[in-house]
Design brief:
One of its GO terms (molecular function) is NAD binding. This protein is α/β, with parallel strands linked by helices and 536 residues long. 45% of the residues lie in helices and 10% in strands. The chain is built from 24 helices and 14 strands. The strands form three sheets. The chain has a seven-stranded mixed beta sheet with strand order 8-7-6-9-10-11-14, sandwiched between helices. It has a five-stranded parallel beta sheet with strand order 1-3-2-4-5, sandwiched between helices. Bound molecules: oxaloacetate ion (OAA) and magnesium ion.
Length: 536
């Protein structure tokens, strides 16, 4: 415990137990007199935390309160989050994190995470030495250009890596000291932010072209030097950059893109589970996407792998996937089709979104537009008229940007829809059924991927790991969860899910010869032994 004593121990967030120090510890560490009489168990402290939390009457105040708790007493924060994940996750993460990012410069209290600006060029490896931890295993990095569905939030986007790190710790048990949130602050094109006198970021237009790419490259290389065991998670980059960096680095360094691959795996898992409800064969499905960004094309690409693994050839697989953009169905006749979407632009007459549903009769509709309200009543009614049980996954985040709400989906489909969404929704009563729709969030995937990479020390993160993660996630959904309208397991079981995904990732790492570790025979027990359990 770094020989901490007295006030220094009491105020050290990683080591304090606050009122939880026993009388013997108070004697030993010079804490007598510094604490009130009662020795409180962590459960009693959690009760106090929840009492204070529930008195706050806005979600942003709750976010600020929880963030302050994290800065004050790490173990208490994580124990509270793990034991009350349904209540805490939407406050620490989406949807509240969207609001927290928008307000970041105004609610800022304490610097968390690591900031890199263009003025650090040439010195990134040097300044990384300022980070106080030596054994970093997970880095979540953003440049803030596409924060959730909120667009360019510049350095305010730091809330996202901070939130994702909290999910790593809570959902898969990577130790907080081994995770690092990073903001590559290359400026912002959001003029309102630059003009905000309280804005904290680099207050210039974004770097672009070679100046931008070379800074990202310097960062990736500096990480290899300072933290050779770290996994880099790219998060909330603008879609073309997200794909570019994935193509550039995925075969060279231990990295992945969460918005492309994590979201793809969670969506695919939802599709797998939906087949247990509809009794349709996975290889018979037609899947339609609204939106052509990272989440949609990432999911289509992973679905191609999944179809191929299930026996279709590449061209048959691609023909199962259709895209809609602002102008309607994307067909082979369109001009300026994005390269990633080209394989899914099939021969077909031009038609509107609703007409395309009528003609193609997709079994599954996935929204990843970042635009609220794009799943209209006409869209959902049409999906319901061409399907006994339409599967609709509205990924856009935060809640203010969702394609449709859960309530709309159940009402407009007359209770027929199998629904999931990127943001959490409350249960919906429709006629005599209480539907508990699932949150299709990549929080079910990336923590387990990260834990599996940590456990296996795999050199690279591969697409087969995401395919395996999707299969594992789908396999964990219980019949009871399905009955209540959910295609994902209860969030309260997320640590169990992450553990199972991590074990699967280890097996892929061995199969694909990506690890030089000789993993113990009992991989499951080994992975569990690595999971941080916050307790006193
Ligand atoms: O953060 C989330 O909840 C999902 C995600 O990665 C995004 O929307 O960018
Ligand atoms: Mg994201």
């Amino acid at each position: 415990m770094k020989n901490l004593r007295g006030k220094a121990l009491l105020t050290d967030p990683a080591h304090t137990k606050s009122t939880g120090f026993t009388y013997a510890e108070r004697e030993l560490y010079g804490l007598r007199g510094l604490l009130p009489y009662d020795v409180a168990s962590i459960d009693k402290q959690i009760e106090r935390v929840l009492g204070s939390l529930r008195c706050k009457n806005s979600t942003i105040e709750k976010y600020i309160f929880l963030n302050a708790l994290l800065e004050r007493n790490q173990r208490l924060f994580y124990r509270t989050m793990i034991d009350h994940i349904d209540e805490i996750m939407p406050l620490v993460y989406t949807p509240t994190v969207g609001e927290a990012c928008s307000e970041f410069a105004h609610i800022f209290r304490n610097a968390q995470g690591f900031y890199i600006s263009p003025e650090d060029r040439g010195e990134i490896a040097t300044i990384l030495k300022n980070w106080p931890e030596e054994d970093i295993r997970v880095i979540v990095v953003t440049d803030g250009e596409r924060i959730l569905g909120l667009g360019d939030l510049g350095a305010n986007g730091m809330g996202i890596p901070i939130g994702k790190v909290a999910l790593y710790v809570a959902c898969s048990g990577i130790h907080p000291a081994q995770c690092m949130p990073v903001m590559l602050d290359v400026g912002t094109n959001n003029i309102a932010l630059r003009e905000d006198p309280l804005y904290l970021g680099y207050p210039y237009p974004r770097l672009n072209g070679d100046a931008y790419r070379s800074l990202v490259d310097e960062f990736v290389k500096a990480v290899q030097l300072r933290y050779p065991s770290a996994l880099i998670q790219f998060e909330d980059f603008l879609s073309p950059h997200a794909f570019e960096f994935l193509d550039l680095y995925a075969q060279k360094v231990r990295c992945f893109n969460d918005d492309i691959q994590g979201t793809a795996a969670v969506t695919l898992a939802g599709i797998y589970t939906s087949c247990r409800i509809t009794k349709k064969k996975f290889t018979d499905l037609n899947i339609m996407f609204l939106g052509t960004g990272s989440a949609a094309s990432g999911t289509a690409e992973l679905a191609v792998d999944a179809f191929r693994a299930a026996g279709l050839n590449r061209s048959q697989a691609q023909k199962r996937l259709w895209f809609i953009d602002r102008k309607g169905l994307v067909t082979a006749r369109n001009e300026n089709i994005k390269p990633r979407i080209k394989p899914f632009a099939h021969e077909h007459a031009a038609c509107s979104f609703v007409d395309a549903i009528n003609e193609i009769k997709p079994d599954v509709l996935i929204g990843a537009t970042g635009v609220a309200g794009t799943f209209t009543e006409a869209v959902i009614s049409k999906m319901s008229s061409v399907n006994e049980r339409p599967v609709i996954i509205a990924l856009s985040n935060p809640t203010s940007h969702t394609e449709c709400t859960a309530e709309q989906a159940y009402h407009w489909s007359n209770g027929k829809v199998i629904f999931a969404s990127g943001s959490p929704f409350n249960a919906v009563q429709f006629k005599d059924h209480l539907f508990k729709p699932a949150q299709g969030n990549n929080a079910y995937i990336f923590p387990g991927i990260g834990l599996g990479i940590y456990a296996s020390a795999a050199r690279l993160v591969t697409q087969s790991m995401f395919l395996a993660a999707a299969e594992v996630l789908a396999s964990t959904v219980s019949e009871q969860e399905i009955h209540s309208g959910s295609v994902y397991p209860a969030l309260s079981r997320v640590r169990e899910v992450s553990h199972a995904i991590a074990v699967a990732v280890c097996h892929v790492a061995i199969r694909e010869e990506l690890t030089s570790l000789s993993l113990p025979e009992d991989i499951s027990g080994y992975v569990r032994s690595l999971m941080y359990e916050p307790n006193y």
